[in-house]
């Protein structure tokens, strides 16, 4: 069902629970200080959008849900998370294929977002845009 929610977190466990549906299996804080994060989640019929702002460095373990593609996006000009060892810049994106498992590291305060959609939908959109078959990789891909 379509909807949206914005939440502010002061407890890591609550933030992790809010991200569980998007494949976050665990989060470990790697720096000192008070945990703070803000998360906006928008759910449409077959598409889910997230925007997050975090204030402490951390490592998260993420497993992309089956038959789903996760597209992480850097937000703003500050440091962005490093997904599976790949640091992204504002002008590029990466995709995590269905079932892909990666560690995601932040080195301090950062802002990031994700788009989650069914792999079949992305393949259909790619085919519509290019006029040719569009294969969805089951690996981490940089664009």
Number of domains: 1
- Percent of sequence in beta strands: over 45%
Largest sheet: 5 strands, antiparallel
- CATH fold field value: Jelly Rolls
Please tell me how large the radius of gyration is.
15 Å
What is the CATH level 1 assignment?
Mainly Beta
Instruction: Give the beta-strand count.
Output: 12
Overall spatial form = globular
- CATH architecture label: Sandwich
Helix content: 10-25%
Name the CATH superfamily classification: Jelly Rolls
Structural class: mainly beta
Biggest sheet strand line-up: 1-3-4-11-6
What's the end-to-end separation, in Å?
A: 30 Å
Contiguous low-pLDDT stretches (5 residues minimum) are none
Give helix and strand order, one letter per element, not per position. EHEEEEEEEEEEHE
Mean pLDDT: 90
Pick out its properties.
143 residues; five-stranded antiparallel β-sheet; 12 strands; globular
Describe this structure in words.
- The chain is mostly beta strands.
- The protein has one domain (3-142): Jelly Rolls (Sandwich).
- Helices cover 14% and strands 45% of the residues.
- The chain is built from 2 helices and 12 strands.
- The chain has helices at residues 12-19, 119-130; strands at residues 3-9, 24-29, 37-43, 48-54, 58-63, 68-74, 82-83, 86-87, 94-96, 101-106, 110-118, 140-142.
- Strand 3 (37-43) and strand 4 form a beta hairpin.
What's the short version?
Helices cover 14% and strands 45% of the residues. The chain has 143 residues and is mainly beta.
Helices and strands in order:
Blueprint: E1 3-9, H1 12-19, E2 24-29, E3 37-43, E4 48-54, E5 58-63, E6 68-74, E7 82-83, E8 86-87, E9 94-96, E10 101-106, E11 110-118, H2 119-130, E12 140-142
Antiparallel strand pairs: 1-3, 2-5, 3-4, 4-11, 5-10, 6-11, 7-8, 7-10, 9-12
């Amino acid at each position: 069902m379509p909807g949206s929610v914005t939440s502010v977190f002061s407890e890591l466990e609550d933030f992790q629970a809010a991200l569980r549906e998007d494949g976050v299996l665990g989060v470990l804080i790697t720096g000192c200080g008070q945990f703070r994060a803000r998360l906006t989640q928008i759910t449409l019929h077959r598409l889910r959008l997230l925007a997050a702002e975090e204030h402490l460095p951390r490592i998260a373990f993420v497993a992309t849900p089956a038959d789903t593609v996760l597209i992480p996006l850097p937000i703003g000009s500050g440091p962005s998370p490093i997904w599976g060892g790949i640091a992204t810049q504002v002008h590029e994106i990466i995709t995590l294929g269905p079932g892909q498992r990666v560690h995601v590291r932040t080195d301090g305060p950062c802002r990031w977002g994700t788009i989650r959609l069914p792999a079949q939908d992305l393949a259909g959109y790619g085919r519509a845009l290019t006029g040719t078959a569009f294969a969805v990789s089951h690996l981490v891909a940089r664009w």
